[in-house]
Amino acid sequence: MRKIVLLAMLAASLGVAACNTVSGAGKDVSSAGKAVTNTAEDAKH
Q1: How far is CA 38 from CA 7, 20, 24, 41, 42, in A?
Q2: What distances in angstroms separate CA 8 from CA 1, 29, 35, one per listed residue?
Q3: CA-CA distance, 43 to 18, in Å (whole number)?
Q4: What are the angstrom distances between the C-alpha of 17 and each of 23, 32, 37, 38?
Q5: First CA to last CA across the chain, in angstroms?
Q6: pLDDT at 37 over 80
Q7: How many Å apart are CA 18 and CA 3, to the nearest integer?
Q8: Which of 19, 25, 38, 44 is 20–30 Å from 10 (CA)?
Q9: Model-level pTM?
Q10: CA distances, 2 to each of 6, 10, 15, 22, 39 (Å)
Q11: How sure is the predictor about 4, in pLDDT bands with cuts at 50, 70 and 90?
Q12: Longest Cα–Cα distance in the chain
């Protein structure tokens, strides 16, 4: 019984960590896209 609870807790913690990693990667890609957009807008003027 303890092994099942331990494995469930481990799986839950890994799931939360993965969500944070994906969220962080999405923010990084978004920031890079904004930087490219801003540079393109500056080049127009």
Answers
A1: 47, 27, 21, 5, 6
A2: 11, 32, 41
A3: 38
A4: 10, 23, 30, 32
A5: 67
A6: yes
A7: 22
A8: 25
A9: 0.53
A10: 6, 12, 20, 30, 56
A11: confident
A12: 67
**Amino acid identity at 45:** H
Six-digit token pair at 6?
Answer: 């331990």
Q: Which two tokens stand for residue 44?
A: 């127009």
Identify the pLDDT of residue 40.
Answer: 81
Token duo for residue 9: 């807790």
Residue 32: both structure tokens together: 């890079």
